């Protein structure tokens, strides 16, 4: 009677170890998946829960209201994205204008230096602009350049 009971309980493959392992793996996978869903639901707030689970509605009116809320959220997100893009575009235009203005100023100062350089005495250290650029040092504390003092080098003949 016990032999028959053991054969009947669990079916004809009650002693199949591969099948038992397969059932254990499936159960373990199902438990892990359930835990992941529970964790995802706990992390998400009530509003974002609409994205995780399929809602069941009592009436069509409730479904329409829920989907209207979702649609409104999407529209507000789209408007916010458009606002951010337009703000970024305005900043980009402003930066480009600043760059163009600085390039024009740099060209003006370079042309002025080229014109004035010919007027500086040859025995002054300011007659060589490349040397002045090499000897100049940027001061982080004051936020300006430290330029060498102008020096006139007098040569004496013996």
From TrEMBL:
<feature type="coiled-coil region">
    <location>
        <begin position="57"/>
        <end position="119"/>
    </location>
</feature>
<keyword id="KW-0175">Coiled coil</keyword>
<protein>
    <submittedName>
        <fullName>KIF17 protein</fullName>
    </submittedName>
</protein>
<feature type="region of interest" description="Disordered">
    <location>
        <begin position="1"/>
        <end position="28"/>
    </location>
</feature>
